[in-house]
Description:
Low-confidence stretches: none
Number of helices: 11
Strand content: under 5%
Order of helices and strands: HHHHHHHHHHH
Mean pLDDT: 85
CATH topology: MetI-like fold
Number of domains: 1
CATH architecture: Orthogonal Bundle
Largest sheet: none
Number of strands: 0
Amino acid sequence: MLKKFIKNKTFVISFLILFPMLVISVIGPWIIPHDPLEIDSNNVLKTSLPGHPLGTDEFGRDILSRLILGIRPTMLVALGATLIAFTFGSIFGVVAGYFRGVYEKTIMRVVDIVLCFPPILLALMVVGFWGAGIRNLMIIIGIVYIPRFARLAYSSTIQVKGLEYVQSELSLGASHLRVLRKIIFPNILSPLIIQISLTIAAAILLESGLSFLGLGVIPPEPSWGQMIGQSRGYIATNPMYVLWPSLFLGLTMLAINLLGDSLRDILDPKLKMK
């Protein structure tokens, strides 16, 4: 299996982009060249100057330092939200697809109701009641994307449960818990893993959008979406201010989407053959 990952060039490229970003998100506070909250009124909106290779913002704060620290809340929210969505969505979908009946009707109707709302609109509504912040964003975005995992797990469970060897296990007296743990879940894990990569990308985009609107990470703590939102009023003065966070956000989104495509090809080669 490891050889398949290494031979896939798309996976290797996306990994080489994402792994350093994950490392930087962990060690960022120890490698930043300047205090990201330090204000320097003498060097405001500079494109580049000694000690500030990427320039400064409207308060004279170092953009490079803020970019480095801005990775952490973005990744933390995206990974935490995806974990919440994967855990609860998978459980709900498997229960609905395996036990059917009232479980199926109740769970899938709730899922359908949540899917009626655009993710950004639903997130805006909930943030308006709960408030901003990393923890709230993580929970809100996780709830928004639970239906994606629930529907995928539901349809996959129905397919696997209908196979002969699953029915044989049940006829031999195997408990439902054993069938779910040993047979159902391992056989539906591949599409769920692919969905994880897609959800991380969507969560990053949603977090950035909320931060852009001022409803995400609370200032003065930096995040990429917040930096893009703050810099839009200074495009004419310092266009590099909006370019750097936009570039890093776009590169991250591209790498995660490429990772999802490569995982699909590796874990489900039938799709590649179509």
